[in-house]
Amino acid sequence: MKTYDFIGVFSEGYAKVKLNGMWGLIDGEGNEIVPPEYVQVGEFHEGLVAVKLKQEAHNWGFINKTGKVIVPPKYDDVANFYLGYASVLFDGYWGYINTQGNEVIPCVFYSEDSLPLKQDIPTLLDVPTMSLLIKTYRGEQNV
41 near 14, Cβ under 8 Å? Predict the structure, then answer.
């Protein structure tokens, strides 16, 4: 097994590892799944893990357990997936993505606290007034 500077706790069978200031992932047998090539790596939730490619803005995304990029690095900040959704920050505004990387609630909310609750998203997506809610948060005229 390769020697790392740091090995994190296992989450969903995988652990983040640090080598020379960069982060990657190993499986429960110590096999390197993702080489240390990210500046930050989170922990797996619902089969996906947040990764940050560079220190600059717009560099958070998500990969799966094989290291495949599911959500390309384009967000300023991200939260873990829960109930199939993760909150994401883009250009100062928060929204939600699903596990396929689709933005289900656009990034129009001023703070993460102002986002609808994750358990309410399926209901909101079926409500015709969702566009009104989004326009209101964007501050658009003729609402």
Answer: no
Token pair 């909310």 in the structure block, residue: 109
Whose CA is closest to 74, among 86, 88, 87?
A: 88
Residue 3 burial (CB < 10 Å; 0-12/13-18/19+)? exposed
- pLDDT, tens digit (0-9, with 9 covering 90-100), for 11-45: 999 999 999 999 999 999 999 999 999 999 999 99
Residue ranges of domains in the chain? 6-138
pTM of the model: 0.82
DSSP bridge pairs for 37: none
Asked if 112 and 83 count as a contact pair (C-beta separation under 8 A), the reply is no
CA 118/CA 72 separation, integer angstroms: 22
| CA atoms within 13 Å, Cβ hemisphere of 25 | 24
